């Protein structure tokens, strides 16, 4: 295998597991700034140029492509499963890196299977993968820790979940968070973690708006706000978000026909 330098994107449990998978591999270097979600490849531009100048292949994991045109594209490998690459039957980034390294099937552990299922389909994905209640709690807690969620953010998420609003005849749940750690809302509302459940969910955050639920609703939001991000087990279910607060009445008008 040719020498690789792997550049890691936004931190969550899947990215942490990718880092563990890469650690100590001969011929593999890892460049990890521990970035937040949504980071672009140019955040690593000096290190990327150095790796390419040294004759290494650059592997960019969940990094948006904003690189200058002079970089040799044939020396870049992109790994992602969001946006156009999202889908219920598409390999996760962890699965793609595992295959890229040529690791034997025996190293694909149950824990890695659950980490991949969680990243693709959250708790519903874990349950379809046969996770026990204890495994669901463990994976979700590890994911929140990997994202950097604090105890105070968890507590405020529980408060927001307890104050959730119901709209569109119960088809849509709305939570208002004082931060952008939406995992606390999706987790603490889910029945597997003791919550009341939800069919579709909007999280209103100070700097962004995020939806989880119907794939048809994701498509409607994408059409209305094409500058957002999206992923999940599409086309059936997924998530969508945009980096600004949107008025709830506008969201309801967009979502009602799709729900």
- What is Rg? 19 Å
Secondary-structure element series: EHEHEEHHHHEEHEEHEEH
According to DSSP, the number of beta strands is 10
Q: What is the CA-CA span between the terminal residues?
A: 48 Å
**Order of strands in the sheet with most strands:** 5-6-7-8-10-9
- Sheet with the most strands? 6 strands, mixed
Strand content: 15-25%
Parts with pLDDT < 50 across at least 5 consecutive residues: none
- Estimate percent helicity: 25-40%
Text of the CATH class of the largest domain: Alpha Beta
Computed structural class = alpha/beta
Tally of distinct domains: 2
CATH topology of the largest domain: Diaminopimelate Epimerase, Chain A, domain 1
Instruction: Indicate the mean pLDDT.
Output: 95
What is the secondary structure topology, with strand pairs?
Layout: E1 4-8, H1 13-22, E2 28-31, H2 45-53, E3 57-61, E4 76-79, H3 93-100, H4 110-128, H5 133-147, H6 151-162, E5 165-167, E6 172-176, H7 183-189, E7 201-204, E8 209-214, H8 215-224, E9 229-231, E10 237-242, H9 248-255
Parallel strand pairs: 1-2, 1-3, 3-4, 6-7
Antiparallel strand pairs: 5-6, 7-8, 8-10, 9-10
Written account of the structure:
The protein has 259 residues and is an alpha/beta fold. It has two domains: 4-103; 150-255, Roll (Diaminopimelate Epimerase, Chain A, domain 1). The protein contains nine helices and ten strands. The strands form two sheets. The protein has a six-stranded mixed sheet with strand order 5-6-7-8-10-9. A hairpin with a 4-residue loop joins strand 7 and strand 8. The chain is globular and about 60 Å long.
């Amino acid at each position: 295998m040719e020498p690789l330098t792997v550049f890691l994107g936004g931190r969550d449990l899947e990215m942490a597991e990718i880092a563990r998978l890469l650690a100590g591999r001969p011929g593999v270097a890892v460049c990890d700034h521990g970035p937040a979600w949504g980071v672009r490849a140019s955040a690593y531009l000096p290190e990327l140029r150095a790796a390419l100048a040294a004759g290494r292949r650059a592997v960019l994991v969940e990094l948006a492509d904003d690189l200058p045109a002079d970089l040799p594209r044939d020396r870049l490998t992109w790994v992602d499963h969001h946006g156009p690459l999202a889908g219920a039957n598409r390999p996760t980034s962890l699965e793609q890196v595992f295959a890229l390294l040529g690791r034997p099937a025996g190293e694909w552990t149950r824990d890695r299977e659950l980490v991949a299922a969680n990243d693709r389909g959250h708790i519903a994905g874990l349950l379809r993968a046969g996770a026990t209640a204890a495994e669901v709690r463990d994976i979700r807690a590890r994911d929140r820790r990997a994202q950097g969620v604090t105890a105070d953010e968890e507590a405020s998420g529980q408060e927001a979940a307890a104050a959730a609003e119901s709209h569109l005849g119960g088809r849509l749940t709305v939570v208002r968070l004082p931060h952008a750690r939406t995992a606390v809302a999706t987790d603490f509302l889910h029945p597997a973690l003791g919550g009341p459940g939800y069919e579709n969910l909007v999280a209103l955050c100070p700097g962004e708006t995020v939806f989880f639920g119907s794939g048809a609703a994701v498509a409607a939001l994408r059409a209305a706000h094409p500058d957002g991000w999206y992923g999940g087990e599409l086309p059936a279910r997924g998530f969508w978000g945009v980096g600004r607060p949107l008025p709830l009445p506008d969201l309801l008008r967009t979502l009602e026909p799709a729900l």
